[in-house]
Write a structure and sequence with these properties.
This protein starts with a helix and ends in a 26-residue tail after the last helix. It has helices spanning about 1-20, 35-50, 50-55, 95-105, 120, 125-135, 160-170, 180-190, 200, 240-250, 260-270, 275-290, 295-310, 325-335, 340, 360, 365-375, 395-410, 420-425; strands at about 70, 75, 220, 225, 250-255, 255-260. It is built from 19 helices and six strands. About 45% of the residues are buried. The strands form three sheets. A two-stranded antiparallel sheet has the order 1-2. Strands 3-4 form a two-stranded antiparallel sheet. The protein is globular, with a radius of gyration of 24 Å. A hairpin with a 2-residue loop joins strand 1 and strand 2. Helices cover about 40% and strands about 5% of the residues. The protein is mostly helical.
């Protein structure tokens, strides 16, 4: 009998923990209720948080939701966060908005799926949440009810999320680390909070939570590998504060190339931040990377020397005989790639010399596959980096030969063993790839969430 009582008590306690009360509706506030400076601050913060990228379908109304977000567990459709009183957040009070950000619970008391990264947004200060609220509540209302999520039982029962939170969610606003500088703390707040960089750059466990102890150790996002931002960074020339600042500020750096895939949108959105905040983010991330090992510094010096003395030379590995994949790849490279990637054209409009490429040195071939297949589309209305995609002109065997050549000739490493399988899966749509130009606007042939399934 005592065991039964304990089980019932435990179940009741768990239900009480999981159930959250609704917060009463309010009349949609008028624009005059918010100070213009607060609205403008909220616009900047919304850019840092990439709010529009998840809550807007390409070509549709801003913040109206409905974007399909593929996950390993099913498809989640983003919510309408315009101030529409019926289908959006028009009747949400600021307290309800802050609870969603801080606790991952909506106004009605429903637990939110962590596709909305409240495990990062919980760090956002009340002051910044107030600015975000002011901005969103002054957008154009859109009456649009997104379609229901496509999740199997029991994941379609939101109470289950309370257990996920109990295991993986640490709630609470950011607190400064006393032993670190004000700039470092500002960077940590932006990177780990609204910037939610770890949502892409941290590996996840089988339940979709970021792995503890692996912060910024590399992850996946929208069909791309998000490179490690710790000591495991694959960059041949180690990142410095100045190079990372320049990359985040302008979307490219001569030692690291042009932002591609989802990162193109990130660097585009960071354009609204002041230099001081970009510098703070660079300070924090470089501190996570730590001082590069002497061997890595020596290798970087060797690469720089090679580039200064062998500019324009096409590297031919010893194994590059005509009948080998590397040999066939060398021919393809010279015909299709060398004109731009020979190192004689300055960036961002010239191609990166692959000796400097994190993509070629990365443990996964996914980004190399994406770039070869889909290229880098042109930005609209201005000059930008551009690269054609070769999905329609190169067969699978030709792509894998090219990848084998790039890997050996420029990284000094053997071909990726899973390149052929990943290539076939990418062509077949198993890895939906979000393709963006340097201005960050999604418009590739296989966009994530571009249309209803």
């Amino acid at each position: 009998m005592s065991v039964a009582v304990l089980v019932v008590a435990f179940g009741a306690g768990l239900f009480a923990y999981a159930r959250k009360p609704a917060i009463g509706p309010v009349q949609p506030p008028h624009r005059s209720a918010f100070d213009q400076a607060l609205i403008e601050k909220g616009a900047v913060l919304a850019s840092v948080g990439n709010c529009t990228s998840c809550h807007t379908r390409p070509g549709d109304r801003s913040f109206a939701g409905g974007l399909a977000v593929p996950t390993p567990f099913g498809t989640i459709y983003s919510t309408n966060i315009t101030p529409d009183p019926e289908t959006g957040i028009g009747r949400w009070s600021q307290a309800a908005f802050t609870r969603a950000m801080r606790e991952g619970v909506d106004r009605a008391g429903n637990h939110l799926y962590p596709a909305f990264p409240y495990d990062h947004f919980t760090l956002v200060s009340d002051k910044d949440n107030g600015a975000l609220y002011a901005y969103l509540m002054t957008r154009q209302p859109v009456n649009r009810r997104p379609r229901a999520n496509e999740l199997p039982f029991p994941l379609n029962v939101r109470l289950v999320l309370a257990g996920w939170k109990l295991l993986f969610f640490d709630k609470g606003a950011y607190r400064d680390v006393a032993s670190q500088s004000a700039e470092w703390n500002r960077g940590a707040y932006l990177v780990n909070g609204l910037g939610h960089c770890g949502a892409c750059h941290t590996p996840r466990n089988r339940l979709g939570a970021e792995k503890k102890g692996s912060h910024l150790a590399g992850g996946e996002a929208e069909g791309w590998a998000a490179f490690a931002l710790d000591a495991g960074s694959p960059a041949p020339v180690p990142w410095t504060h100045d190079s990372l600042f320049a990359y985040l500020r302008q979307g490219w750096h001569a030692d690291h190339g042009v932002a591609n895939g989802p990162m193109g949108e990130v660097t585009g959105n960071l354009g609204r931040l002041p230099d001081a905040d970009i510098s703070a983010m660079a300070t924090y991330v470089v501190s996570r990377m730590g001082e590069p090992a002497p061997q890595r510094v020596a290798k970087a010096r060797e690469i720089r020397t090679k580039l200064s003395t062998d500019a324009g030379a096409i590297p031919i590995p010893v194994s590059a005989k005509a009948e080998t994949p590397t040999g066939r790849g060398a021919v393809i490279f010279q015909a299709a790639c060398a004109t731009c990637h020979d190192g004689s054209r300055p960036q961002p409009f010239g191609g990166l010399d692959f000796h400097l490429s994190s993509t070629v040195n990365a443990p996964s071939p996914q980004n190399a596959i994406n770039t070869v297949l889909f290229g880098l589309p042109a930005a609209s209305g201005r000059q930008s980096a551009i690269m054609p995609g070769f999905a329609a002109t190169l067969r699978d065997d030709q792509v894998t030969d090219l990848l084998a050549y790039l890997r050996e000739a420029f990284a000094g490493q053997p071909a990726w063993p899973d390149a052929a399988d990943r290539l076939a899966a990418t062509r077949g749509g198993k890895y939906p790839v979000s393709v963006r130009p340097s201005d960050g606007i999604e418009r590739g042939p296989a966009n994530v969430g571009a249309q209803d399934k």
